[in-house]
Amino acid sequence: MTVTVAEPTMEERIAQLLDQGTGDLPVLPRAAEHALKLAGQANIDFDEVARVGEADPPLAARILSVANSALYFRGQPVTSVRAASVRIGAQALRDVLYLAVYSGTIFDVPRFRGKVEEAFRHSVLVARLARALGERAGQGADAGFLPGLLHDVGRARCLRLAARRVRPDTTEAELTLAIDRLHTRAGAALVRAWRLPDAVVEACEHHHAPDGKPTATLIAAADALAHFTEAPPRATEAQCLAALERLGLPPAEGPEVLGMARAEADRGAA
User: Fold this and answer.
1) Residue of 223, 37, 60 whose CA lies nearest to 130
2) Other CB atoms within 10 A of residue 152 CB
3) CA-CA distance, 3 to 34, in Å (whole number)?
């Protein structure tokens, strides 16, 4: 009697690779480590930013690009990293540094590049919304930016693993389901391996089920708002308001926060 063994699903294939641990992943790049250290300073040392930027051309180019953008342009372009850092100020500079961390953690997955880029755009919006919500909720303006930026990094990791095991007959729905189910586990294990702050681990692991965890609750609310602004929306107004209530914001602030989310999404798309 011949016994037919069922082919493992896409979810099972990715899970098997996750079970092997993070040994196949690169360490957190040195540039990202530097960026985290600088961004975490209570008072950013612009001279130190300049030294790091001068040794890391992509980071320098990113800082200069922001400083010479229409938002910060003052009639005369800046050409030094230090002058660019001073021009944009500490908060915007932290954003640039954290985005450099994201660039250092993202994976090149040619087969799924569009999906990786979509996850990046969503994560940037979540990070910005988390900053605004964190300030409103009394957690601090910077409490949620990095956790929001990296909350879905597990999606990129899952896509990288899927590219190694995908079958020709794998459907879009099967791939999406696998990543939806596994990305929190994949992301949490990854940021733990990179020794990122506990708040980032919490955001990766629990943003779909915060269960009272402060950072995860903040990111869950920002995530819902970001999905609400999509076309078509992937979160309802009621879901957003419930998430804001769990964050401790009064119902009266709901309409204003929803408007802020739409404006932030439009600003990012501009």
Assistant:
1) 223
2) 24
3) 55
Whole-angstrom distance, CA of residue 232 vs CA of residue 230:
5
**Residues 6 or more apart in contact with residue 38 via CB below 8 angstroms:** 44, 45, 48, 49, 52, 97
Q: Give the pLDDT confidence of 1-10 residue by residue, as tens digits.
A: 555 557 888 9
- What percentage of the chain reaches a pLDDT higher than 70? 94
CB 45 within 8 A of CB 209: no
Asked if 223 and 151 count as a contact pair (C-beta separation under 8 A), the reply is: yes
Mind listing the domains of the chain with CATH numbers? 26-105 (no CATH), 108-270 (1.10.3210.10)
SS3 label, residue 116: helix
Model pLDDT for residues 191-233, shown as the tens digit of each residue? 898 888 899 999 999 999 999 999 999 999 999 999 999 999 9
Please, which residues have CB within 8 angstroms of residue 204's CB and are 6 or more apart in sequence? 147, 150, 151, 152, 153, 154, 184, 187, 188, 190, 191
Amino acid at 124: V
The pTM assigned to this predicted structure is 0.85
